[in-house]
Amino acid sequence: MCNPWVAVSGAVVAPSTLKYGNGAVSFHLSLQTNLDTSLAHVHDDADAQDDGYDFRRIQDKWLPIWDKLKPFSALDPSDKRPRKYVLDMFSYPSGDLHMGHAEAFALADISARYWSQQGFNVLHPVGWDSFGLPAENAAIKRGVDPREWTYANIEQQKESMRRYATSVDWDTELHTSDPEYYKWNQWLFLKMYEKGLAYRKDSWVNWDPVDQTVLANEQVLPDGTSDRSGAAVVKKKLTQWYFKITDYADRLLDDLNQLEGAWPAKVVAMQRNWIGRSQGADVDFEIEGRADKVTVFTTRPDTLYGATFMVVAPDSDLAAELVAQSTPAAQKAFATYLAKVQKSTEIERQDASREKTGIPLDRFAINPVTGERIPIWAADYVLADYGHGAVMAVPAHDQRDLDFARKFDLPIKVVVDTNAPVTGAVPVLDVDDNGHAILPDDLPPLDPAATGKSLVGEGRMINSGPLDGLSKSNAIKKIIEQLEAAGTGRASKTYRLRDWLISRQRFWGTPIPIIHGEDGTLYPVPLDQLPIVLPPTAGLDLQPKGQSPLAAASDWVNVPNPVDGSPARRDPDTMDTFVDSSWYFLRYLTPNDDERAFDPSLADKWAPVDQYVGGVEHAILHLLYARFITKVLFDLGYVSFTEPFTALMNQGMVLSGGSKMSKSKGGVKLSDELDLYGVDAIRVTMAFAGPPEDNINWEDVSPAGSVKFLARAWRLADEVTSKPEIEWKSGDLDLRKQTHRLLADGPGLLEAFKFNVVVARVMELVNATRKVIDSGAGPADAAVREATEVIAVALSLFAPYTAEDMWEKLGYKPTVALAGWRKPDPTLLVEDSVVAVVQVDGKVRDKLTVNPKISAEELEKLARESVAVIRTLGDREIANVIVRAPRLVNIATR
Question: Exposed (0-12), middle (13-18) or buried (19+): which is 441, by Cβ within 10 Å?
Fold first, then answer.
């Protein structure tokens, strides 16, 4: 194969369109136009050339050149290359980039650069998730405007990201706190409102007492604390704005099937569990003294004959209504109990080991199948937002109900005989001459009241009238038919997922585009009046007080009614910042469009995102909301797809001393590491540390070792003496084989995110090339040039500065990032021989060089004839021989 790069007038340039790799790369004219000017400045610099590897000099040299060339501009409509969309989860600008950013951005960048080398036009955009509480709290602490703090941090991060050589298209840059961006949050809200998916309601909400704002359920950590402030979350009743995500629960759950294998299994499982679909029935209970029935959801309608009392959530509207018509004594006890419950977190209330508490409401329900009068209790183990806020208690077959019944001496009725066998296609018990199962003598007693253990296993129905003798599945089917026939119930399902609470009582967020009339009527802000821009903070007290600071901005909040001009007020709340990140990947397509949120035709071309990269901490919140909004936009006709991110890669954390690094906890500073080792060494270290999803303990890796490796690779380009147009096929055969093996294996490894393996293979090729230079054919050999060029292209994914400098030394103009991944020569991939390992009882005893096409029989014969094997076996008898030709023979002895 001949080198495809062409020498012209002593310099080497690329043809404007060059076929190689898996496609064609069309170099932008702007790249070629600015080359001579950019490089002339570099070569005039007395310090541009240095005998040793100096990462500082190399970084200072190439960064301004890349700034001029803009090699990663992607949105040119005339570009005919196939498209790829690679996206990092955008950064929150709380300060400079940290070690976690270094890992995430390096891994995403490797993927983006790889697809560029494969001949794709890669969209790799950049932006900042710049609204939110941390900025507002920091501004309050410093006595400055959140804008000042936020945009100063963005400039700092932007400069660090440029230095880090991420292959982003800077023309796509966006900030969610710009009115030009959040105008479209407001547009989206109004579209949701028009569709009935945005609504207000009074409800008990999660309240952060430190940040003085509400939290969505997803923002409450498993220990009951806020994911923002760390404070224990309490309940508070407020009128809030919600997005009706529960309308999409089935689609969000079922469409996860599309993501199996392309998203980490852990993330898919977390989303399934969070949505938490339960199949069962809604059962209507009559309440004495109440006209309307109370509907209870149950996953076990087959146990309805065993329902002996009802439990309602003390903080539900139903409990308040029932107790209001009860006795004065019950009302007083209830008020005391409710105050106590409101101090508990949901996590505490759901703790199965916690002692049950509750009070009777002196109200009664009627069991719809038995006609029995059953008492109604309020108890904190039932949550107001689960099902309908009430449960039918079947203590014999539910452990929580049983614990409650035993404490308060309530009836316990067994309706499932868990000792009775459930027959199937394969008998599990012996039978007698009459075909009846022979039961063991030591069956457990059917007496939960005495044992304290509920009967939750399979069995047959008893004490259940027409259900007696049926198995669980058949009983569920029959009882639902019975309920539907009587008009007292129906098949149903419920979800753990709750509607998305988007109201926030803080300043630094998107204003909600609703105007409140004096009579409480809600008026959507007309589209032509968007954006509703945040007011200046001068004279505005941003200290959290339980209501939005915007409510005190009188000139801003007081507006005329858009219908009749009467006095009205803007909604003072702002939106949850997860609204900003639920659709930002679409705004990148037209970041400066004043007429629409995004261009649907460009969405059809570029989206959904081909490869998304970010932390697993966003497995529920951000990813679930983005999936929801995408489905809404699909229904509204703005996009043609229903899932936003085709493939997802989660990176692990970077640890110091086994702990996650943070500003509060300290640890290694990225800026210090970059100053000490250089950008390329940090990037290579991140990639080489292990699989992307694994955590990296910084003390266990060696950026200093990465510097030595890069210097070793860089020096190869200095020593190549052959010309670019040399015929490669004349070079050292063994080195060429190793080079083409990397070309052949690299794409599969990179697409499987085995970046560490690719780095290792490049290291091996560097060593092999060095060996040929020092003790083989020498630096003029064609295979040395070929290998060094392939090393430069491969290194451009991991160490772009070093790779670019090598590319220039090899006689080419920038940029190596678009040079293309060459196709391997199939004739060089054929192995002349392989090494077969021979084991005796699992221990290696010999290695045989054999033909790769050797048969299993012939390989076993050679192994048995091996002197080392014969000596090891001695008098032992061979029990078994396993042959995996041509690589392995394993001999087992008795």
Answer: exposed
**Neighbour-count burial for 262-297, b at 16+ CB within 10 Å, e otherwise:** ebbeebbebbeebbeeeebbbbbbbbeeeeeebbbb
Q: Which residue has the tokens 């710009």?
A: 178
Contacts of 454 (CB under 8 A, 6+ apart): 395, 396, 397, 398, 399, 401, 402, 448
Nearest-angstrom CA–CA distance, 217 and 866: 68
Q: What is the pLDDT of residues 406-446, one digit of tens each?
A: 999 999 999 999 988 665 444 455 667 777 766 666 677 88
Would you state the structure tokens that stand for residue 762, as one six-digit string?
């490049």
Residues in contact with 582: Cβ distance below 8 Å, sequence separation at least 6, in sequence order: 622, 625, 626, 628, 629
Degrees to nearest 5, angle at CA 176 with 173 and 177? 115
Token pair recorded at residue 877: 């008898």
| Distance (Å, whole) CA 590 – CA 171 | 10
The yes-or-no verdict on residue 481 having pLDDT over 80 is: yes
Structure confidence at residue 36 as a pLDDT band (50, 70, 90): very low
**CA–CA dist 105, 614 (Å, integer):** 9
* CA angle 122–127–133, rounded 5-degree value: 150
User: pLDDT tens, 50-105?
Assistant: 358 999 999 999 999 999 999 999 999 999 999 999 999 999 998 889 898 999 99
Task: Read off the pTM.
Answer: 0.84
Q: Are 654 and 102 in contact (CB under 8 A)?
A: yes
DSSP code string of 678-705: -HHHHHHHHHHTS-TTS-EEGGGS-HHH
Phi, psi (degrees; rounded to nearest 5) at 515: -115, 135
Under a CB-based contact definition with an 8 Å cutoff, are residues 889 and 881 in contact?
yes
Place of tokens 């570029």: 606
Task: Say what the pLDDT of residue 428 is.
Answer: 54
Tokens for 854, please give them. 């050797």
| CA-wise closest residue to 795 among 683, 701, 715, 705 | 683
Nearest Cα to 205, choosing from 187, 190, 217, 189? Answer: 217
Q: Are 705 and 759 in contact (CB under 8 A)?
A: no
Three-state DSSP at 133 gives helix
The single residue listed with the structure tokens 């490797």 is 110
Beta strand spans in 41-157 (E): 83-88, 121-123, 127-128
198 with 243: CB under 8 angstroms? yes
CA gap 447, 557 in Å, rounded: 64
Cβ-based burial of 851 (10 A; exposed 0-12, middle 13-18, buried ≥19):
middle
Q: What is the CA radius of gyration of the chain?
A: 34
Element housing 294 (H / E): strand 294-298
Sign of the CA dihedral running 691, 697, 698, 703: negative
- Here the tokens at position 299 are 């996953």
**CB count, 10 Å around CB of 152?**
13
DSSP H helical segments within 497-619, as ranges?
Answer: 554-557, 584-587, 600-606
| 3-class DSSP assignment, residue 410 | coil
**Distance (Å) of CA 875 to CA 274, 870, 894:** 62, 9, 10
User: Which one, of 176, 145, 129, 162, lies nearest residue 62 by Cα?
Assistant: 162
Q: What confidence score (pLDDT) does residue 583 get?
A: 98
327-370 confidence digits (pLDDT tens)? 999 999 999 999 998 878 777 787 888 899 999 999 999 999 99
- Burial code (b: 16+ CB inside 10 Å, e: under 16) for 595-604 equals eebbbbebbe
